What we know:
- Chain B has 307 residues and is of the alpha/beta class.
- In chain B, 46% of the residues lie in helices and 18% in strands.
- In chain B, helix 1 (17-32) links the parallel strand 1 (4-10) and strand 2 (37-42).
- The termini of chain C are far apart.
- Chain C has one domain (61-425).
- The interface between A and C is large, with 57 and 61 residues.
Amino acid sequence: MAFVIWPPVQSFYMENDMAIIQRLVRHLCTICMIGATTAITTLVLLILTEILLRSVFDSSLLVTEEFAGYLVSGAIILALAPTFHDGAMIRLTLLSDCLSENHRKVLELCMTLIALFVVLFWARYILRAALKLFDRGVTSPGVFAFPLWIPEGVTLFGLVSLAVVIFAHGLNLIWPKASVNTNEGAIDYGD
Amino acid sequence: AQNVTWRVTSTYPSKSHVGASFNAMAEELSRLTDGGFVLQLNLDGSLGFKGADNFEIVADNVVEIAETGAVDLTGYEQIFGVVGLPFVAPSNDDVLRMMDIVTPEFAAAFEKHDQIMIGWGSFPAVGIFGKHEISSVDDFAGVKIRTYDSFSASAFSDVGASPVQLAWSDVVSSLSSGVIDAVLTSSFGGAAIKAWDLGITDFSEIGYSTPITLLHVSKEAFDDLSPEYQNALLKAGDVYTQTNWKESLAAIDGFKASFREHGIAIHDKPNDDLKARFTEISETAASEWIKAVGPTGAELFQAIKEK
Amino acid sequence: MEIEIAIVLLAIFIGALALGLWAFVTLFVIAILMMVLGGDFSLEKAGILAAKVSVRASRSWELSAIPLFLLMGEMLFRADLSKRLFEGLAPIFRHFPGGLLHVNVAGCTTFAAVSGSSAATTATIGRISVPELLGRGYDRRLVLGSLAGSGSFGLLIPPSIAMIVYGVIADVSIVRLFAAGLIPGLVLAMMYSSYIALRGRGTKLDSKPENLSALLGLIPILVLVFVVLGSIYGGIASPTEAASVGVAGACMLILIERRMSWELLRSSLVAATRLTCVMGAVVISASVMSAAAGMVGIPQALANWVVGMSLSATMLLIAIAVFYIFLGLFLDGISIMVVSLPLIMPIVIASGIDPIWFGVFLVLMIELGLMTPPVGFNLFIIQSISGATIGEIARATVPFFLIMLSAVVLFTIFPQIVLWLPEKIF
Lengths: 191, 307, 426
Ligand code: NA
Ligand code: NA
């Protein structure tokens, strides 16, 4: 079992490396959360503008439905990494609550590996789709021909960030010492 | 003989002329192959794909056959937009002639993206479902009308209406609460939302456009078929096209009868002023579209006009 | 798909969830396995499909109302407006057995008239009511259960996304369906309230001396409800757009109350975004799983089986109910409806069942699915709001699930409860 064997090897340097990774993860989460909240704010303003234009100026943006889609999608996907990092994702805990500390860690490590694999698999096919859209210069069929690789690229960024966070979560399980200082200098992006 | 099952995806309702046409196609295919070639129909958008999604999943052979609105595919190839140009084919005969002219071009566009076009379908022509008759330019003044693409938005703002963009799922409550006054849609769409329950009193047929759908299959999947099955598929595609046209025409009469029965007046005589404006609008829209497509577009549009 | 593979997949599904694999990952894994093991898909094709469906599902216009309603709820909560709402309601409700627990039911019933989605209803009302009710010492099980039960009114009381989908596929008037959902929604609300009153007898809560000035605390929220409802029924905004009117209204209220700060805006945005993500991740992977199930033909096979039994009208309804409740354990109800309706609808019509009545019946079936584990969106939402485990919430929901089921029986015996209003109006 990895974390039983490895801790003695843990060196000064390794701890330092781990600190760097954890800092990277925190920065990444902050960036993602800023992107996601910006998307939600823009969504509010977009829809309010549409209502105002329609009811006061007899006019319409004509792209509200399409862009609302990109924005809500962007918000969800970008928020995946920080939300996972906070441990807020839905999961059942009835079984792991009955396990001993060590067994729980092995189980958690397995689950983390599966999650990492799944997210990378997902990201790989988003990458494939994004590249195709970019190569062919595909745009939306709407009023404003919007290049579709842009929202697809945002999705890719969100998923890769999620993979990084999951990877770091796994490392944390193997070298738990590294997580001692996670709160020090943590960037607070909410409660 | 081979045993082949192909999946079909379409967002259009199984309970419509589209469903009937797919059933006819599946029967023909089964007849031609002694039951060896089966179609698994997934209509009503039940697989979770919409519009342009079909283009890629068929190109990648995830689903073998899809039926997709031509205008939804303009983001891939601008040429598909020709059938959505305003007033490009005002009558049913015009639509048939137009499809004869554009089919080779569309087939070539699909070929570029690893697909084969094996048929097409249509919906009854779009018209305006509103709260008063619309047959002159003045009738458009200040009407908040839900349109569905860039052509229709600019066409109706040209005649003084206020085009509004709304999700289709919001149309029902928006019509009954007065967020919008009118909706531009096929008589099929008007019947689907039961327009008479939403305060609609008039249906104005203005010959704006006939929605065209395209039946396309994966080239990879097609190449895997035996020549005999390939032929059967192409024949079944023709059956789709013919059934769709016939059933769509038959459906129009049914829709109109039910509009009249529920007190919706039908108008099909736009006055000369309005017709003249429509011709101008048609030319402007076409020239913009030609700019995006290039010389092929100009030739194609010319051919359709001279038919 | 062979029955053996189906059983193995079911075991993996339940096992993975029980071992604590994140729900969105589990759904994704099952979707891929279903296509690769149960269908003729290569891993690559399964990946392409998953990528396409996930992106499509995440870009839905109907989904966009959810973060905005959540944002509105967070802002009201952080500006203490929801606390003042409860302080205002306390003197009114303290005389009723069950006290403020009725706020869950009444709040969801009112909010359901604004929102077409059950998820938005559960999340918005829950965000406001759960902390208050738990803080005031109300019975946890009643708080969580009544929210899971009445949150699902979002689909039953008009407007309703599920009814729009049903109306289009079944070719039934959507406004008549909307009218048909209203009275059953109110009847169900009364049944829930009666149960709460029965269970909540003798609870001596909120016995603080009455302060009538607290009633003034009701005004801001009442104004907000009036503005949002007014924007929909006054023809200003569509139901989906009304969410942004709600956010703007909440901002105005908070500005008037002089409680607005960057910190309030920032923390509300972060909290709303996070909850949107928690739900969105499950919504997206659940649609991938629904698409996969449709691809390999599971719901179609089961629906065909139901159709093939040639049952009497009553037995048919029971079979359809079992079909929906079973598939509703794992799949999203609206997806099941879309896949199965083209098969089931003809036989329903042939059995002489009224299609409007059947629409309400189906919506109730979908709502039951929202309340059952392992995949029940109302349970997921309440978990993220309250921090309780899915098991605890599911147990708390059992009575409300049973009440809804008995309401279905009631509406079957007395179909006029459903059909009276649409017949009266048109
Ligand atoms: Na509702
Ligand atoms: Na469920």
